Structure formats: C-alpha cells, structure tokens
UniProtKB/TrEMBL annotation:
HAMAP family: CPSase_S_chain. This is Carbamoyl phosphate synthase small chain. Pathway: Amino-acid biosynthesis; L-arginine biosynthesis; carbamoyl phosphate from bicarbonate: step 1/1; Pyrimidine metabolism; UMP biosynthesis via de novo pathway; (S)-dihydroorotate from bicarbonate: step 1/3. Keywords: Amino-acid biosynthesis, Arginine biosynthesis, ATP-binding, Glutamine amidotransferase, Ligase, Nucleotide-binding, Pyrimidine biosynthesis. It catalyses: hydrogencarbonate + L-glutamine + 2 ATP + H2O = carbamoyl phosphate + L-glutamate + 2 ADP + phosphate + 2 H(+); L-glutamine + H2O = L-glutamate + NH4(+). The keyword Nucleotide-binding applies. Residues 1-183 are annotated as: CPSase. It holds the Pfam family GATase. Transmembrane segments: none annotated. Belongs to the CarA family.
Amino acid sequence: MALADVKPALLVLADGTVFRGRAFGATGTAIGEVVFNTGMTGYQEVLTDPSYRGQIITFTYPELGNTGVNDEDEESAQPHVRGVVARNLCRTPSNWRMQRTLDAYLQENSIPGIYGIDTRALTRILRSSGAMNGAISNTVLDADELLRKVQAAPCMEGLNLVNEVTTKDIYEWSDPTDGIWEYRPTDAVGGGSPLTVVAIDFGVKRNILRRLASYGCRVIVVPAGTPPEDILKYEPDGIFLSNGPGDPAVVGDGIATTRALLAADKPIFGICMGHQIVGLSLGGETFKLKFGHRGLNQPCGLSQHVEITSQNHGFALREESLGPDVEITHLNLNDRTVAGLRHKTLPIFSVQYHPEASPGPHDADYLFAQFVSMMRDRTAENLSSSATAR
Ligand SMILES: NC(=O)CC[C@H](N)C(=O)O
C-alpha cells in the first residue's frame, strides 16, 4: 500500500469513545465485541481461531503484519474475527514462509482493519470498563452514526455462535504436527493401535487435531449437534470437546450431549469452551469475565507447579458452582479463576487454556499425553475385565 493510498478509519466504542486512525484490510464497517490480545506473536493463528468469531481484536503488540500470512498457519478454513485494530502496520513484511501480506489477506476475506491509533489507551479503557461492543469503519466516518450501529448490535452474553463455525460434515483427521515443528517427547507415544477419539466441534482449532494425531489418535470430527448415541456408534476410546466462540451457557445441545456421555464412562477431555461445557454438564455455572484472558503468558497452576499458557476466553466457570465431585486442578494465577478441573471418580478433565499452543508456549502439551494414557489405561482395564469375565 503506497502512503498516498492510505484512507481514514474510525473506531467507536459503545461508551462513545472515538479513535481516529488509518484503514487497512477490506473496505467497510465491522461491528462486534472489542477485546484485546497481548500475544507478541501469532496474529494469523488468532485471526483464524474460530473462538474469536464476532469480535474485533486489538493487538497490543505494537506492530502487526511483519511476517505476512501463509497457508500453513491457518487454524481453520478462514479468518473469523470481525475486525482488526493495530498500533502500526508493517509495510515491508518478510518471512520465508510468507505468501501474502496481512493487508491483502484481510481484503480478500472482507475484514476491515484500523491502525495508527493508541492501542495502549484503548486497552486501558477495555481493562477498566470491560470488553464492550464497538465498530470500525472506513466508509462511515461520522462517529454518531457509527455509535448508533454499535448500540443496535447484540451483546456477547447469551450469544450462541457455535452453529456458524461447527463442521457441516463428519470428517476424519489424521495429520500430526509437521516433523520439523514436532516437540513432543519421543517416548510419549507408546506402541499399540491408534486410539479413536470423537471430537465434538464447537469451533475447533486445527492444531488441537494435529496434537491429538501426534500423540497417536485417529480423530473423527463431528458437528456440535451430534446426538450422543451417534457419537458412541464410533466406539471411541475417548471424547474430545473443542474450543468455540460465544457464550457457553447457551450451547444447550452440547451441554445435554456431554451430560449423556458422562454415563458412558469414556475418557473426556475438554479445552476452553469444551472445559466450560464439561463444567456446565456437571451442574456448574459460567459467568462473563470483565475483559477476558487473551494472550500467550497467562500463568496457571495451584502451588509449586506453574504453566505459562496460551488463552483466549471471555467466560469462565464459577468455582463455587462446581459440586463436590469436581476437583480444581488449575487456577489462573492472575485472577484466581478456574483454569482446570477433573472429576473425582469419572475419567474426565478439562482446561480453560490452550495446551495446543498455536500460538504460545508448550508447557501444557503434557495434557495430550495425559488424555492418551487415560484412554490406554481404560482400554487395558476393559480388556482385563472382559478376560476375567470369560
Ligand atoms: N477459546 C474458547 O473456546 C472460548 C470459549 C468461550 N467462547 C469464551 O469466550 O469464554
């Protein structure tokens, strides 16, 4: 983009705050929940993570687009964010894997962006007042007109966005993490036949599927509304509940299906929305956090052991709503909200953060190994009990 082509753009928050900056990406207006992500890397993974559906993302890292965009780092088939807010846009991106610029990518995908605004000031507003709806536009430059559009938009609380992102068709995933990037310990996958995992897709990120495949799973991905009896027809060794966008409390079919699957006594592992759905199916409640956790350095643990984790969520489980069968395994150490749980008697565990770390640190990758060993132990137990019964 030549400097002469730079067009003005506007960001208006629901509280009436106005930021004036410059346009990049698509021509048009985007309305959604304005949130901030503090990660220093991985903007492409963020843009394509289906959990960001319906949101305008402010990147606090001060320069965006330095490494362009490539086909391999897509976390799903398309970007899901509504709009992008940046301090500065890199005009000379360069990377050996780059296929196009961030600007061209956002144009192709009809996503408007605004840059050249004070993202620190914006983030301070979102931290003190909480995440709120807003709009960015390079076609409507009248702040009052844009504010009226923002005020007419639905709020994130109570919004079910899963149907917009879940797979329409059932498919099998067997691609592991590419060998040049693989980081699992070489002894982490024991021998034995591949384990069958049914993944319920609330908006799954590809790197979760890759990590499951890397740990020796054959993954069957099913739409979010799949009834429990259809899931059990695959005779899965375990069930995975994925991440996803919107308010978890209104994903009624997912919660009912998970509740029904508890009775099947199969290992269940949930990530982010999957974790919230595990908690809700066990009788817990969720609530909306003031400004959420979005970034790559969120510390989680209890005492002694701390994991630095990748996160992207706006809702959380209410600790006091979880019954005596639930053990809290991790807290978010910044605000002490629930970050991980396990059931005391059933083979179920879940985390609020993203152990697949795409992007982010790999501290929590052991959770995939934990799921696999839970499934292997279960299979061994079943085999020995059927041998005794004979
Ligand atoms: N990454 C996710 O799965 C997010 C879960 C949920 N939409 C939230 O914002 O809390």
